[in-house]
């Protein structure tokens, strides 16, 4: 049987990239799970602390993210939904793992490299270096590995941007198993589960991914966007002036991104969808994409607007989720503590 685990940062209302790249796959996995499979979905508040946060905004973002998960169909009766920071075992295991993590591996993380590059670009040439960034940004993939290994997860569904972190998680599981050898390995090596629409691109700059941090609000569609907002964002999406529609992610990233979105929202294959538009123009494609996105978001949006205000219910779901999560992780921590303190380094 499988243990499926994934996480998302509580940094505001999710955009279409999060939804199509990750969250919708969580729901699919929940539907197709075998009776013995376990599913855990975590709202990773501690990860959000790597960047400055406004406490009131973070609190409401945590609440909203939980409401989103429920609105899109994650069922608290089937899956364990919980706030990472309700379970202190995450930081505890994170510390143990950081003691076996080679610095070089963390330096090679593209997420770290892009932070570093951004800091270098923004600062004065001389003294700008790593010292401008906090250590949490650097060690954050270790905390992510702890999130996964704490529950002995076997499958981790994430978007493409997180694949490298899952590879690191496998490495750390393996290093731990070899360093603190018990009678049997403590951690299974988790598998990266690719989402069909693994990379949704910015509507304004289709060479980069759709992202929460882009200052251009037109670049992303939020789960809460209304039909007119969706329409105007899709209409303004950057495409190209080539005649006809073809799926060519390299040569026509903007057009291909719209096809990817259309295929994902209507649960079809992208090559099949692109054939249907061969002889059409961008106007028709955009109109159909906007309609498909609206159709796709309509129900979860309405459910979200209702659930987000049911504070007592949300708190109860979070409380139960945390209790169930801790029950699992407690067993792992007992094993880890035994292996680290009794068996020690070789
Ligand atoms: P986060 O919160 O940035 O993103 C949540 C999920 O959304 C996916 N995603 C995308 N997929 C396709 N296209 C996009 N434009 C796009 N933008 C985001 C991400 O790949 C991710 O699956 N470190 C993680 C959260 C995390 C986690 C974990 C995940 C913490 N611990 C343990 C899995 C297991 C993160 O920052 O994701």
TrEMBL record:
It comes from the Eukaryota. It is found in: Mitochondrion matrix. Belongs to the class-I aminoacyl-tRNA synthetase family. This is Tryptophan--tRNA ligase, mitochondrial. The lineage of its organism: Eukaryota, Fungi, Dikarya, Basidiomycota, Agaricomycotina. The chain holds residues 48 to 393 of 729 of the full protein.
């Amino acid at each position: 049987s499988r243990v499926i685990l994934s996480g998302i940062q509580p940094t505001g209302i999710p955009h279409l990239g999060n939804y199509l790249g990750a969250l919708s796959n969580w729901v699919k996995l929940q539907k197709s799970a075998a009776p013995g499979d376990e599913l855990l979905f975590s709202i990773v508040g501690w990860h959000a602390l790597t960047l400055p946060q406004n406490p009131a905004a973070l609190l409401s973002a945590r609440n909203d993210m939980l409401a989103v998960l429920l609105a899109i169909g994650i069922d608290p009766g089937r899956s364990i939904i919980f706030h990472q920071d309700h379970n202190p075992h995450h930081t505890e295991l994170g510390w143990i793992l950081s003691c076996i993590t080679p610095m070089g591996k963390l330096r090679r993380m593209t997420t770290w490299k892009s932070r570093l590059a951004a800091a270098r670009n923004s600062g004065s040439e001389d003294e700008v270096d790593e010292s401008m960034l906090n250590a949490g940004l650097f060690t954050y993939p270790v905390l992510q590995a702890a999130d996964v290994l704490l529950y002995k997860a076997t499958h981790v569904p994430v978007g493409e941007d997180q694949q490298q972190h899952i590879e690191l998680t496998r490495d750390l599981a393996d290093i731990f198993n070899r360093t603190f050898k018990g009678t049997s390995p403590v951690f299974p090596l988790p598998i990266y589960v690719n989402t069909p629409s693994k990379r949704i691109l910015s509507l304004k700059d289709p060479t980069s991914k759709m992202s929460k941090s882009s200052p251009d609000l037109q670049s992303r569609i939020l789960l809460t966007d209304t039909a007119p907002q969706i329409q105007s964002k899709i209409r303004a999406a950057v495409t190209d002036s080539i005649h006809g529609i073809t799926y060519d992610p390299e040569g026509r990233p903007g057009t291909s991104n719209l096809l990817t979105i259309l295929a994902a929202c209507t649960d079809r294959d992208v090559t099949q969808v692109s054939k249907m538009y061969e002889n059409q123009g961008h106007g028709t494609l955009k109109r159909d994409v906007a309609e498909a996105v609206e159709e796709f978001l309509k129900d979860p949006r309405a459910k979200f607007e209702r659930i987000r205000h049911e504070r007592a219910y949300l708190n109860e779901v979070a409380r139960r989720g945390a209790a169930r999560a801790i029950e699992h992780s407690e067993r792992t921590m007992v094993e880890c503590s035994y292996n680290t303190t009794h068996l020690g380094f070789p």
